[in-house]
Amino acid sequence: MWLNTHATDVDRQQKQVILGTGETLPYDKLIMAQGASAAVPPSDGIEKPGFFVLREAKDAQAIRAWRQEKNCTHAVVQGGGVLGVEAADALRRLNLDTTIVQRSERLMNRELDSRGSELLEHFLKTLGVHVLTGASVAAIKGAGQIEGVELTNGDVIQADLFVTCAGIKANAELPAKIGLEVNRGVIVNTQMRTSDPDIFAIGDVAELPGTVAGLWAVGTAQAAVAAKSVFSEEAKYTPPNTMVSLKMDGIDVKGFGDLKLDDDDLDVCETADGGNQHRRLILNDGKLKGAVSVSYTHLRAHETGRNL
Questions:
Q1: How far apart are CA 122 and CA 63, in angstroms?
Q2: Which of 256, 304, 307 is closest to 283 using CA atoms?
Q3: What's the pLDDT band for 305 if we cut at 50, 70, 90?
Q4: In angstroms, how far is CA 220 from the centroid of its own chain?
Q5: Stretch (H or E) spanning 222
Q6: What is the pLDDT of residues 26-52, one digit of tens each?
Q7: What are phi and psi of 220, to 5 degrees?
Q8: Burial 66-83, CB ≥16 within 10 A → b, else e
């Protein structure tokens, strides 16, 4: 393991990885796993101080420091997926008036069904978090630093701290530089092989099928396939069903698998009296295909600020 070392180029003809130190490493087979960075949707004024992404620990530390140094009062989170919801809850705990701006019509639309999203939004609102769905950011306002966020409908939200949680961007600059086929990520087949038969790609940098996943379970499954493929063993990547769990006190939110209903699926749904619990199972041929679970209790405790 070579730490603090950059791969700056790959000579595919000589089969060498060229390092930033000037050294080279020969290879017979090469696996690329450069990961991804936080995606930043284009918006006017995005370069203003007070704008943050949230992907690494240093990002969270920078956000906390800015809030204290500037005595911030209002925060806007762009993105209502898992990370965006968790970020909004963390900013609320820093005593910021917090708003989530979600482009989709509901929160966590990839992981939850409509009823689950509805319960989650209601819970957030009881905590004082504002939720705007079906909305997009057009521009960042302010002179020396961020002072507001303008939406595409013309509304302006007061903000002195802005965090974007809009997914990931594959670190595919090097693969593109050396002539591999690249779209959003490095294009691979089900053996995780790129357009060069001796080079493989896995994890957040790899694209198959038509998407960059950005999930740990996906990366490890792809790594197992690539390891076998390197040694010419029979292997084929199949996307795993993954469970997503929201890390947030007072509410339990989980989404699993595929929630798209087919004609032969069995849809089992249960919503508790009082509306604070929703569970749904989607079965196909006796096997669990997808599931949603959203539940919270003693809502009054949250309305008064106590932690359960």
A1: 26
A2: 256
A3: very low
A4: 17
A5: helix 216-230
A6: 999 999 999 999 999 888 888 899 999
A7: -70, -35
A8: bbeeeebebbbbbbbbbb
- Find the helix packing angle between 82-93 and 57-69, rounded to 10°: 30
Which DSSP state fits 77? E
Three-state DSSP class for residue 92: helix
CB-count exposure of residue 135 (10 Å: 0-12, 13-18, 19+): buried
Going by their DSSP bridges, the two strands 168-170 and 36-38 should be labelled as antiparallel
77-104, pLDDT tens digit by residue?
999 999 999 999 999 999 999 999 999 9
pTM, two decimals, is 0.88
**Residue holding tokens 């990931």?**
168
Query: Which pLDDT band, with edges at 50, 70 and 90, does 242 fall under?
Result: confident
Angular region, 210: left φ>0, alpha ψ -120 to 50, beta rest: left
Only one residue has tokens 């057009």, namely 138
Compute the distance between CA of residue 252 and CA of residue 211 in angstroms, rounded to an integer: 28
